[in-house]
Specification:
Rossmann fold; binds manganese (II) ion; alpha+beta; 6-stranded antiparallel sheet; 25% strand; 3 domains; binds guanosine-5'-diphosphate; single chain; D-amino Acid Aminotransferase, Chain A, domain 1; Dna Ligase, domain 1; 4-stranded antiparallel sheet
């Protein structure tokens, strides 16, 4: 679960990570009011779940409260598409209004998991700011890492070693060192998968502050953090993915595919996607209905896939273990009847009550081809795709 910058900054501040003064505004007049309580320049920042706002016009620096109001008027109610948002336009419902900082230098600092090393990692670069992706690609030696033993946390000597190699003033490296320890405390206490501060700014007053903040919490741990669950902003999520989340379905929309996939079990889902690719088509989504899906959940799954305009064929591949195939068939038929949209289907059903399921489907109005195995399913898909 992703947090907004303003929510992440509240957390930083609770854990003694310095941030500039700022408040969130829901309207242009609120933005004006907050701006007038700030001396000097003000930064207005669109609150959306996408990075790269700076380059996309989602960050504006203004001189006075009236201009702040105008910027908020333009932003709030509008949308923002950035190079990181994968084509999605995120709605802007709030802006963060912050006192501007006088930046001398921008660092990049993050805590995340290193799955190769199987431990948390702290990532630091002196070349932070809006082009960090380019730095990582062209000059990877400018990106430094400290691997963390989760039982001890970031060892102060490792942090000191790394910072001393940067030849910073003692005053600065001391502050960064404290920030690293505090970020790690957040990472651990809130079960984060990522905390990213970019830029971590060094100001002309030699203060180190977090100018931007991105925090992602592990979805599987949300049950341990009810206060964080309340911060969830569903307006920032794709509608189908939100619907899937509400129905306990693992669904991810994939770009460019035409085959909607409905499968139970992640392993089978991946194999099904491979077969789809082999058939010369691409999957339009990943969808795992789970091992024990009910009729209602299957119905929702059908609706989610059928509502995707990219989908030309639906491939159903279910293995009835705990899931009964006849229950799944009823769910599919209900989905089709209630949603009233028929899309050609290729169906592979094996296991518990699969014969009953086939009978039910055969007697429905659905346009279905049955296949006994995946290679046959693949050739059926090819036949059904629009030329
Ligand atoms: P992002 O593009 O979504 O990552 O948004 P950021 O919050 O990182 O802002 C983008 C850039 O705006 C930063 O890298 C800074 O260069 C600039 N910026 C943000 N806040 C301030 C500020 O208070 N003062 C100045 N001068 N620049 C700022
Ligand atoms: Mn940033």
């Amino acid at each position: 679960m992703q947090l907004h910058e303003y929510q992440a900054k509240n957390i930083l501040s609770e854990y003694n990570v310095p941030i500039p003064f700022g408040q969130v505004a829901l309207s242009d007049s609120e933005c004006e009011k907050i701006s007038s309580s700030i001396n000097g320049k003000v930064v207005i920042k669109a609150q959306v779940h996408a990075g790269g706002r700076g380059k996309a016009g989602g960050i504006k620096i203004v001189d006075n409260p009236l201009d702040a109001k105008k910027v908020a008027q333009d932003m709030i109610g509008g949308t923002l598409k950035t190079f990181q948002s994968g084509g999605t336009k995120f709605p802007i419902n709030k802006v963060y209004v912050e006192e501007a900082s006088d930046i001398l230098k921008e660092f990049y600092l993050a805590v995340t998991m290193d799955f190769d090393e199987k431990c948390p990692v702290i990532i630091l670069s002196t070349e932070g700011g809006m082009n960090i992706e380019e730095v990582a690609e062209k000059t990877p030696d400018k990106i430094m890492k400290i691997h963390v033993n989760p039982l001890i946390g970031p060892s102060p000597y490792k942090v000191r070693n790394l910072l001393s190699s940067l030849n910073l003033e003692k005053k600065i490296s001391q502050q960064i060192s404290n920030i690293i320890q505090n970020l790690y405390r957040i990472f651990k206490s809130l079960d984060c998968t990522l905390i990213e501060i970019n830029p971590l700014a060094i100001t002309s007053q030699e203060k180190v502050i977090a100018l931007d903040a991105k925090i992602t919490i592990d979805d599987d741990s949300i049950f341990r953090h009810s206060d964080i669950e309340e911060l969830f902003d569903e307006t920032q999520m794709n509608r189908s993915e939100l619907k899937a989340l509400r129905n306990d379905l693992a669904y991810i929309k994939l770009d460019g595919g035409k085959v909607g996939c409905m499968v139970n079990g992640a392993g089978l889902a991946m194999a099904t996607m491979d077969i789809t690719m082999k058939a010369g088509a691409a999957p339009a989504n990943f969808l795992d209905v789970g091992g024990s899906a009910s009729e209602e959940r299957i119905e929702e799954a059908y609706k989610i896939i059928a509502s995707d305009n990219d989908v030309e064929v639906i491939l159903v591949n279910l293995f009835g273990g705990i899931l009964r195939c006849d229950v799944a068939a009823k769910g599919i038929i209900n989905g089709f009847e209630n949603y009233n949209k028929s899309i050609p289907m290729v169906v592979v059903l094996r296991g518990t009550n699969s014969e009953d399921a086939k009978l039910l489907l055969e007697n429905s109005e659905l346009d279905i081809s049955f296949a006994e195995d995946l290679p046959t399913a693949a050739s059926e898909i090819t036949k059904k795709l629009k030329k």
